[in-house]
Design a protein that fits this description.
7 helices; alpha/beta
């Protein structure tokens, strides 16, 4: 059975980013993690959230926390982000209705550093089985998401970084501050004694937390 949410199932997606990059890896990796509590930094139209509900919401109450501003980044300057947010709301509601066991999907609208700090202040340190970092592509933001998300991840849990090799098209070439890779590399280097990189196709990067 395919777990890719698609239009024929009543979803509304305007792109296939998730299906073409993350989904093939998640099909193989996430059953080993078997997540119950998921934190998603950057949700857009909800494709990854809907996938998680479709894949893991049939036997237990999946808990997903979705963090996004729904304002978009520099690459979304011509995108109607209000319409994107509306599609997110409709898609995740549809996924929840289809699930055999009703999931808990919490929407945290705002900047990720603030929202993640609130989760930590709320006592959720080491709470999540899986953290997906797919928010801002600006290196300082990615580094903040990685550090705060790692605090929220349990030992043995998995963190996934989307767009590891993404770079903004600029007349002057690649600006290292305006792409995720330098931040992800800095994080994995500084936290090398607390994590292990998982072998996977390199457009994304996956780590398992080995200690706090």
């Amino acid at each position: 059975m395919s777990h890719i949410p698609n239009a024929s199932a009543g979803y509304q997606f305007t792109n296939s980013w998730f299906a073409s990059t993350a989904q093939p890896v998640w099909d193989q990796l996430l059953p080993q993690v078997n997540p119950t509590r998921v934190l998603e930094i950057g949700s857009y139209e909800g494709a990854s959230t809907c996938y998680l509900v479709e894949r893991f919401g049939g036997t237990r109450a999946l808990e997903v926390h979705c963090v996004d501003t729904w304002e978009g980044g520099v690459e979304h300057s011509t995108t109607d982000m209000s319409a994107v947010e509306t599609r997110f709301d409709q898609n995740v509601a549809h996924a929840a209705q289809r699930a055999l066991v009703a999931p808990s999907i919490t929407k945290h609208k705002g900047y990720s550093d603030v929202q993640l700090a609130k989760l930590l202040a709320g006592g959720l340190t080491g709470y999540f089985d899986f953290v997906y970092v797919d928010g801002s592509h600006q290196a300082p933001d990615v580094l903040a998401d990685a550090i705060l998300g790692f605090r929220l991840l349990r030992i043995g849990g998995v963190m996934a970084f989307d767009d590891y090799l993404w770079s903004e098209t600029l007349p002057t070439g690649v600006d290292p501050i305006r792409c995720p890779k330098p931040a992800i590399d800095a994080f994995t280097n500084l936290y090398c004694r607390k994590l292990q990189v998982i072998q996977a196709p390199l457009y994304q990067l996956y780590i398992v937390k080995t200690q706090d």
